[in-house]
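Input:
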Amino acid sequence: MSRRRRLLARVLAAALLWPAGMGPAADAPGVEASVVRIVNHYHRPDWYTPWSTGFTGQGTGSGFVIAGRKILTNAHVVSDARLLLVHLHGDPTPRPARVEAIGHDCDLALLALEDPAPLEAVPPLPIGGLPSIRSEVVTYGYAAGGHVVSFTAGVVSRIESQSYAHSGIDEHLAGQTDAAINPGNSGGPVLQEGRVVGVAFQANRRMENMGFFIPAPVVRHFLEDLEDGVYAGFPDLGLVAAGMENPALRRYAGLEAGESGVRVERVFRGSDGEPALREGDVILAVEGRPVANDGTIEWNGLRVGYAVAVDLLQAGQCAALRLVRDGRRLDVRVPLTARRVGAGLRNVYDRRPQYYVHAGLVFVPLNRETLRVCAERGGRMADALLWHETFFRPLEEDGVFDEPRVLLIRRLDHQSNAEAAPFLYGIVGAVNGRPVRTLEDAIAAFETPGGDQHVVEAAQLKLVTVLDRREADAAHPEILRQYGVAKDRRL
Amino acid sequence: MKAPRVLLAALALAAAGARANPGHPLERRIVSVRVTYQSWNEYRPWAKNQPGTRACSGLVVAGPRILIPWQLVEDATLVQVLKYDRPPRVPARVAHADPQADLALLAVDEPGFFDDLAPAPVAAEARLGPALSAGWRDGQLVTAACRFSRSVADESRVPHLYGVALRFVTDLKGGGWGEPLFSGDEMIGLAQYQDEDTLTVIPAESVRAFLDAVDSGRPYPGRAFFGGHEQYNRNAAQLAWLGMPGPPRGVMLRYAVPGGSFDGVLRERDVLLEIDGRPVGCEGDILHPRYGRLSFDVLASGRLAEGTMPARVFRDGREQPLDIPLRHLPAGAAPVPDRRVDAPPPYLVAGGFVFRELDAEYLRAWGDEWRDRAPRRLRIHLEMSGMGLPAGRRRFIVLSHVLPDAFNVGYHDLDNLVVDDVNGRRIESIRDLDRAFAAPAGEYHVVRFVPNSERRTVVLDAAALDAATAGIMEAYQIPARARFRDDPP
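Output:
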């Protein structure tokens, strides 16, 4: 572990062990001082023109100071940052900051000021526990981009698992409150009795007076994960399980009176759950907590989905499950990793797009962003084929999610390729007879001497693009120059 | 009195064009047609939607019979015809129909109905000059000038057919309701629909082919359909790769739709060079003697599905002659049919589970924006079926929804899942489903869906199923447990 990481680990441990009673009360005058405004001058890539400058802009959000002179905020507040400026309460000087750690799966990020000295006078906010339902909370933040901290009060209406919009695929516990959470509030603390019980993070436009916060257990998980200096992410068993409310289903599964659980319907290949679980197993208990027939467990006085008990474990730990399999009761321990099936389909941040251009044909890896571009530009047919290939075929055929694939995303027109019939917006199956899964495969296929043509075959629909190899190779530098592509690849 | 909505809409849109003088010869050649129709409720497949009405024009042709676009009598429960747009309304019936060609013939059984009407001569082929459309509107014969604009290869709204459609610019407002177009005394086309000032017209040749086939007295074989998915061949490098000498020409076959004319005859990467004696261009075009450059697909639609059509392909490094057997592919041939064509949705209710065949009619029940709103996975099945891709099954049977009941508690929120097998029997039709439920796996019925992110397995108490089904049907007023397809695929 690097020195910087060890330091970070100690700082985080201190944040979690903050003694009770040391933080300011929610309505105490000092709370505002701990809440900061974050201005993110971001740079987002253009996935359709991956070599280009892309898009720049500015967004604002909130954050708050925690122990160790760090600032906690949402990942979406600081994603794709090129310049982060933190405005401390009552301080007219913007303070440059950097992202020390970011968890896109849980929409949390930890910042440090380039010069941490100004934070010495700022009281850190301690991380509290799970707020109870109907208890009062106060949210702090720079709503609507305002320059003065604002706060709103409300009650905790609900705590349950919810999709986290930032990544697009992850689901964790989330709290719901009627305290207003508006754009700009993101990353701000939700306080109760002087302790942070959540981090404001998203709203639902279809609901009025409802905002959502990341509750303290998820925040603590993020910070604990960072104790070794590396953010691993939330574990996941990688399965589909369904409730057993129907009595016939319970009898069929061999449950005895008084037993309840969920039936494993699918275990994804490559998942943490794969070695230990199989279809038809009934999960009776997770981490010693009985699973009800609706898939919930009792947890801190709440009924939450059984997966919460696994979600809040760390990679490297084991999940203890009690099962019914073929009429037998057995206990298994599932070693957890940071691997999450389908992670390749998360929204992409903080990454420069990879690409390869040859003779005007532009190849990119399949990910959520390139999938989106191709589905939008390619119309219904491309949308259907790509969604099928990406989301449904692995599910139906017991395939592996997140297999690398390459898309032919565009053609830069040139006389040498203009008459070719490229299958744009589709998955590449092979180039010059060699199977292609990665950009490296494509490059090797193009650059290996061979026949008189470059032949690019689609993985679907049996489409083929044929270029005259000599003409195409000769035109390649000219095409790059004409279209302002400085380099033909980024890997 | 509750006015028929569609009729009022049609009347409101009427006008423009000019009223013909009383006694105009066309008054005896065109009748008004009133159609009451009632489509099926796709969500409650045992029930029908509220009925509606259509008002349109019909052309008197030899027989005598009345010719109209088929789409106007789709789902008809009552068809009536009026002479001179005046009562009485006389019942008519659909005697012959070709939904893919969008043509139907009405017969009127009332003696003497045609006595003061005159069949219109149908031109051997459409003339591409000025034409006159005519139709009854509010008791008056309204005519409008039409100017030929262009010809297109049009995919029929009922697959599988690519026909020639003619576009005419007209000053008629709200047309496209079966108005015939005339050049001189002859009918040269039949208006299918209108978009702003442009009428889309079925050309006379298509009408003549339909009438001749019906009049032959032989079983109607339907129009031919090639069913090829091709790729342009305009790239010299592609030609070289295929080993084809000479300039770009022909189109390269990627795959053939099962059951189409090309199926089993053309091979992947064959280059179709010539068909029916016409050279095929490198973009799949042929030079039609009357309509100019059009997709070669229109050559099939002009022919009935009988006999063969000569072709030349480039295969294995040389040109070869082939005979293409002309085959008809019914609208319902695809694994996910785009249209059912006057047929109710097959379904089965078991223990409150409402199963039905997946088709585009079901997905359209999500409204005008169904392509965005209907379940994505089902839409993908439709799209892939439309592309002629192998589906791995003849039909998709879908759990549409569950009618909640104590028997199905725990499953009552399930919807829009594709059934994989029931009691170990693979399910590709409602009849398969019925048979599978007749043979439980011991004490249980085990329904398995195609893997999804929700639930794969449903287990039901076999001994209680029939009683539960009967009780649920009573509670939800379902008249019949199942409806099967007449022509199992």
